[in-house]
């Protein structure tokens, strides 16, 4: 069953701070306090001039010093707490993202391009913090300033307040015209960044082929085009925001001077005192700045919303509904009817095949016949209908508990970013096999002696065969009853391969399904059954039958 949860929209800020409610609340209180202190400055100004405090310099100095002290404390606290909040949100966003990725099934994860994931962690989270969270908090702070400033000015001169609000309306209107353009520019910028990262990833992945095939210029030309796209889209995005910002700040300057002129006219008609005009001029910043900045901040918020929506969508766990916890050993796997397609191309069309516990199956067939796909389906890395494990529909079986009952090794298994020892034991102390024995059987002594405690083990240039032997040793150390091998011997020399085959296949409790291409008569004879892939079907035969017909 697909998780058809509808996309949640809106209330983004609430979702972002839901794990940090207390800190968010404290930040809001400090923001309000800061605005109150700012308003005190206007009141102080008008008080100083109208109540002739200028005559008493000592009280003036005391009042100003007290004010500055309070201002310093509140403003520092506010800045610091808001910064802490932003960092907590960044941490939670990253945490939600990687936890949601880790909970995905293998198939859905593989569909995602790694550069897209890197881009999410690197650029998109920053866009959300810098453009969305900061702007939202600023909007709140400016709203409080606007309310307090407006109340103060309304108390002294309703006309000036009306004038300021009228200018505000015009500014917001001008900015809202460009709303969609801003969203589009932001998405274009992120797209071009994603493509560039993707090309750099390809450059790293194919570097030796690029050098050998003399393709450096082709790749650099491609990167140049993408680099140019980034340059242009960044300029379009940031440049456009900067132009709007500067128009808005021009409007704010004009409003300040118009307010002063308006106030002087009112003084002329005895409707205002000088002190009150100074108070209004000071407080007008509390009205003008929010209005102008509100337009700028709204631009930033609008432009970052699509990114935030995408990040939140990706943070929603997309795990399938798998109700059956699989806490028993695998007795058998029945393929009742398996029909598997990639797009419109059918790869497998099998029926009535049973894989029994304890038997050893050699899986062979022409390249591209679907053997790996078959193993991926049995190990639930790919989803398909018609497979039953202990008569339970494999589709409904929980992946993690099922995966705990088998080991799987493929030819491309890379080493984990752990030390040599941990790569085999995965930190488990107990196993049927001792680490020392496995090191001997899998001929890993030279690596073991040299690199036992090296935590940068993954960076060693081990050969393909050495890596495969370590992965096979890990599979045996895990001591599971079922072992799925997908060309797990492909890079191992004959002597090592024969010895390891002998060791694995002589274990009577172990069920083995092993895909192999180059296999000798001696090795084949260690198996019980051969599963031969032909024309989307599997022919199952006894090993003697296969040996008689093929060797
Ligand atoms: N994710 C995919 N999307 C589309 N086609 C795929 C995908 N994975 C594999 N195929 C195709 O399905 C076919 C079967 O692939 P599969 O890897 O299962 O074959 P195989 O028998 O294991 O081959 P080989 O012996 O060469 O490893 C191949 O033609 C392959 O190109």
Automatic annotation (TrEMBL):
UniProt keyword annotation of Nucleotide-binding present: yes
Classification via InterPro entries: AAA+_ATPase (IPR003593), ABC1_TM_dom (IPR011527), ABC1_TM_sf (IPR036640), ABC_transporter-like_ATP-bd (IPR003439), ABC_transporter-like_CS (IPR017871), P-loop_NTPase (IPR027417), Type_1_exporter (IPR039421)
Transmembrane segments: 21-37, 57-82, 137-154, 160-178, 250-269
SMART domains linked to this entry: AAA
Main localisation: membrane
Places the protein is found: Cell membrane
Keyword entries, A-Z: ATP-binding, Membrane, Nucleotide-binding, Transmembrane, Transmembrane helix
One cellular component (GO) term of this entry: plasma membrane
Topology versus the membrane: Multi-pass membrane protein
MF-aspect GO terms: ABC-type oligopeptide transporter activity; ATP binding; ATP hydrolysis activity
Nucleotide-binding found in the keyword field: yes
Domain ABC transmembrane type-1: 25-303
Top-level lineage group: Bacteria
Ranges of residues in domain ABC transporter: 333-551
Protein name: ABC transporter, ATP-binding protein
Provenance organism: Holdemanella biformis DSM 3989
Phylogenetic lineage: Bacteria, Bacillati, Bacillota, Erysipelotrichia, Erysipelotrichales
